[in-house]
Specification:
Layout lengths: L5 E2 L5 H7 L2 H13 L2 E2 L1 H10 L8 H12 L8 H5 L2 H5 L1 H10 L2 H10 L4 H8 L4 H10 L4 H12 L9 H11 L1 H17 L3 H19 L13 H5 L6 H17 L6 H13 L3
Parallel strand pairs: 1-2
Helix pairs in contact: 1-3, 2-4, 8-9, 8-13, 9-11, 9-13, 10-11, 11-13, 12-13, 13-14
Amino acid sequence: DLCNGIIRCVGDADARFKEDALRMMRAIRFSAQLGFEIDKYTFDSIVANAALIKKISCERIKDELCKMLLSDNAGKLSLLFKAGLMDNIIPELSDHVKLYRSEGHLIKCIDESDKDLVVRLTIMFYEIASLAAGILKRLKFQNSIIDNVDKTLHFRGIKLKEDRVSIKRELKETGEECFIHLLAVREALVRADNEHEKLIKIDNIKEIVQDILNKNECFNRKMLCIGGNDIKKIGVNDGRTIGLMIDALINKVIENPELNKKDILIKYAEEIKKTDF
């Protein structure tokens, strides 16, 4: 029913879903991608046959879920809960939102977020963070996605400050990619709750981060103008000591970016060496 923006099965819906239960997720995915409504009879059939989704491979389910998450109408994910499909796909998440009646807030946060898979998966598992990696593995997500989501969830509680040095310290701890994901997640949560002052703060932090990156200010080992081999040249050979010295130098240039020059850092390294670091 393209003209009327309605999604319905050809023929008997029960029969179509019994032939291939993934069609139930596809109906919701098309609704999300096209902004269409699902015919009542078709949706009632999805509810009645929801348990059949257990027969579908995790890979196929994962692909449909990703397409929904990255659609322009990700709020349609609510239909997975309403139809009972989520009970059979991610029961841990379904149980949590039922217990805390948080489905609406979860969906709103996802809908407010950047169209990024790591960001939206992080929001999806925000309240059941300890279970996320196991669920994503079960659904056959790529290891890189699992690692990024798990890392972002691990740092989800960090306090965001608007000063440059604090931001560089957080960038050092989390890594650039993770910190940007964290900002996107936090922004979505704030937008969903209509917290205007917090949104202004996040916008300010985003501007500072972009300026740090544009100016290539050091906050990690790769950006430091000296490395382990340079430390060895001044007579330090113990690996752990070298690592601690490099870390101290990074902290130095985080506070004073103008010091990130090889000759200056060598002098500081020699001073650190004299202190029996």
